[in-house]
């Protein structure tokens, strides 16, 4: 239990520090939305303001996020004081679910770059 409390405290501290650094480094531009609107100020836009977005990059990023979360979820299991057989069974079931998911993504062609 003490290991978990120490681990949780360290993770919380690192999270708070990173959020504070992010707030200190970032800046915001204070502006009124009505004055910057091209229709409000009389300007006619010359091009489409919508940036094209490739859904394939989104899918690959989402898959990266899922497999990254596998690592994040698996690491605390190592520190828990459960017996080895139960930990191996839990980890194998979790990995099997993710492995079946990646096989399905490959079969559906979500990871093909040639499309």
UniProtKB/TrEMBL annotation:
Pfam families: Oxidored_q4
Keyword Plastid set for record: no
UniProt subcellular location: Membrane; Mitochondrion membrane
GO cellular component assignments: mitochondrial membrane; NADH dehydrogenase complex
Keywords: Electron transport, Membrane, Mitochondrion, NAD, Respiratory chain, Translocase, Transmembrane, Transmembrane helix, Transport, Ubiquinone
EC identifiers of the protein: 7.1.1.2
TM region(s), chain numbering: 7-29, 49-73, 85-108
Catalytic activity field: a ubiquinone + NADH + 5 H(+)(in) = a ubiquinol + NAD(+) + 4 H(+)(out)
Domain of life: Eukaryota
Cross-referenced InterPro entries: NADH_UbQ/plastoQ_OxRdtase_su3 (IPR000440), NDAH_ubi_oxred_su3_sf (IPR038430)
Membrane topology label: Multi-pass membrane protein
Molecular function GO terms recorded: NADH dehydrogenase (ubiquinone) activity
Function: Core subunit of the mitochondrial membrane respiratory chain NADH dehydrogenase (Complex I) which catalyzes electron transfer from NADH through the respiratory chain, using ubiquinone as an electron acceptor. Essential for the catalytic activity of complex I.
Family: Belongs to the complex I subunit 3 family.
Entry protein name: NADH-ubiquinone oxidoreductase chain 3
UniProt organism field: Haematopinus asini
Gene of this entry: nad3
């Amino acid at each position: 239990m003490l290991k978990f409390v120490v681990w949780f405290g360290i993770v919380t501290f690192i999270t708070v520090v990173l959020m504070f650094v992010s707030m200190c480094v970032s800046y915001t531009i204070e502006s009124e939305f009505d004055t910057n609107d091209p229709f409000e100020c009389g300007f006619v836009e010359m091009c489409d303001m919508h940036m094209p977005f490739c859904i394939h990059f989104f899918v690959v990023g989402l898959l990266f996020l899922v497999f990254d979360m596998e690592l994040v979820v698996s690491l605390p299991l190592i520190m828990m004081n459960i017996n080895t057989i139960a930990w191996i069974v839990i980890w194998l079931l979790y990995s099997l679910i993710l492995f079946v998911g990646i096989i399905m993504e490959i079969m559906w062609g979500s990871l093909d770059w040639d499309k």
